[in-house]
């Protein structure tokens, strides 16, 4: 019902932010995620950041976040891979 | 490259084991159209256990918008004195007098926007034109409309208005659970991105009152399979529960800022859903202090005349009461090239997904296992 | 539930009946199913002949020595990362000749400009035409210029026609495709369409994406030396999905694509996700899909990889003997789905 994609917040200025989506950078409105900091992964829908993602959980479930961080690491010339724990299937809440 | 193969295969194996142990036919409803599309895109129906069925629910905002609301939108878009800004999703939805795309071919100004703020910006850039934003969508999308309205108020943008047909998902789920025509559902796969806004706890009364499981899930193939596994295991263990499998994004209380924006600009109101009639409190209407941004008021639009295309059973398809192939128009008079009902227009629509991913309706998507093609690559 | 499944089985195969239309919509030019409707309802009944009815990228001039093609270019914006309308106009026509087995010999260029077009824009476009023609080894030997009133055209439209010489090698044709054949692509999909769509619909997005627009006659020449090409085509409008679905329908065989093998850059994948688009349906302007016998696949893949336009080449699928004429995509989770030709214009969406 609603497409939303995770992206990394790389710049912030008031309620405007710039996110990076694997080499695609766009301006988003961050008024709904005031707690998000530069470097956080946020969920983007229709030009708005709608939530800050819990980084640990996100890395486990999102292949593309893993990919992106891997790519960033590769670029930085590091050889180590992101530590991955077994995925958590969620618990009854 | 993206590769989720191994974990997907392991999860699928666990799903098959759990489903086999259940020993009876089970059906889950995915309430969200993006789940529908994701499932078809990754070929999920072809690898599902034979006794587990996914029923598509009323989760495509384009599909659930009533025909009267769509006609009114197209009429407004056909006026010479209006710039209509819409999400790309609405462009080809058929109304009684053509669609927005045909209005555009006749020279009307219909503009596709990615964000509500782009529509507001158009209004600010062209102060002599009336700019109307076609606001559709569930709670994921509605806060963006609310934000644009607040900003329009703050900047006193007088030539901006919204034609809002936003919907709320919880009243629709309740309506489904009390409708006797709807097949019995063993659990809901709840919409991940709506839940980002409304939170997970809001489903608890549904779980308790109707004794049905609600699992909130993400949209990647592994997330999808993992949610179905969770639902199946709950059936196996004879449990009902509320499970949040999208915890990286969904908090128990939702997004308080987004909810505050919604509450500031909108109040719940009765809304008409295609095929489901009027569901109390299932819509969002502008509060009095923002009513002057309501396109209905500004253009003195009359109450739409409700009707549905003859023969079209989109209403039943949306609520899970019928399969697309049970419609006599499906794949014959109604195709994505010349759609009659909105479920065929919207790329998230159930009919569109069945047509597109099921070889124009030739493949039986509810029992596709027999059609499994052989492995082919050298 | 059982009842529904039975009803479901009882349904006979539906026959789509495309509705008549009264006005041309943008989607009629999208190169998808609606373009087919336009061709079938209006063009073919009036203009049909044995050469045109082949509906290939180029038509064969009777006598069998030359191929002729023509294409118009109306892209907005005129300049986009990785290319521009001039480079597109030369590459597109050169590629349409090359994939039909013809060696491009000469091009004709027609320009329709709107009153008020800046001189420097025209100069830039024509510089690009010249550079690309040099790269492809062809000359523009004739042309035409028209100017229409302000507002009657959007900047500049180009049309290029091209003539190519058939080389004596067997001419690639869908009829030569047989079960067992292998499909190979020369690199990642989606770059051109996504770049242009981002530049047009979301100009504020800064992207590392670049169009892949390029003349491919050099690469294709090398491939034809390496092996006999049964069929080839450039997956332009309609994307890889359109090409594969068309080929399946045309040959009557099943075309199988392996999702995990189809090359796509992460930046394209994520841009497509953001816009709600399927990369398989997005236009490419520097890609070619070749179909070869399985024994020659390795040689062709090697030949591609040695060429700058084919470094990321991959075997992406094969033809199998099921006579259902559909294209099946085998997905990364071990399932499958049918790929169809897209319907029309691609639009960004939020749902």
Fold blueprint:
The complex is a heterotrimer of chains A (about 90), B (about 375) and C (about 350).
Chain A: E1 5-13, E2 16-21, E3 24-29, E4 41-45, E5 48-52, H1 55-61, H2 63-75
Chain B: H1 5-22, E1 26-30, H2 33-41, E2 52-56, H3 61-64, H4 67-77, E3 82-86, H5 100-105, E4 109-112, H6 116-125, E5 130-135, H7 142-154, E6 160-164, H8 169-177, E7 187-191, H9 192-198, H10 204-210, E8 213-217, H11 221-236, E9 242-244, H12 256-265, E10 266-273, E11 277-286, H13 295-298, H14 314-318, H15 342-345, H16 350-357
Parallel strand pairs in B: 1-2, 1-7, 3-4, 3-5, 5-6, 7-8, 8-9
Antiparallel strand pairs in B: 10-11
Helix pairs in contact in B: 1-11, 2-16, 6-7, 7-12
Chain C: H1 2-10, H2 33-47, E1 59-60, E2 66-73, E3 79-80, E4 83-84, H3 85-98, E5 102-114, H4 119-136, E6 139-148, E7 156-166, E8 182-185, H5 191-201, E9 206-207, H6 217-226, E10 231-233, H7 239-251, E11 254-258, H8 266-275, E12 289-292, H9 297-306, E13 314-320, E14 327-330, E15 336-339
Parallel strand pairs in C: 5-6, 11-14
Antiparallel strand pairs in C: 1-2, 2-7, 3-4, 5-7, 8-12, 8-13, 10-12, 11-13, 14-15
Helix pairs in contact in C: 3-4, 6-9
Can you walk me through this structure?
Chain A has 93 residues and is an alpha+beta fold. Helices cover 22% and strands 33% of the residues of chain A. Chain A has one domain: SH3 type barrels (Roll). A 5-stranded antiparallel β-sheet of chain A has the order 3-2-1-4-5. Chain B is of the alpha/beta class. Chain B has 16 helices and 11 strands. Chain B has a 5-stranded parallel β-sheet with strand order 2-1-7-8-9. In chain B, helix 1 (5-22) runs parallel beside helix 11 and helix 2 (33-41) runs parallel beside helix 16 (350-357). Residues 360-378 of chain B have low confidence and may be disordered. Chain C has 351 residues and is an alpha+beta fold. In chain C, helix 4 links the parallel strand 5 (102-114) and strand 6. The chains are: A alpha+beta (93), B alpha/beta (378), C alpha+beta (351).
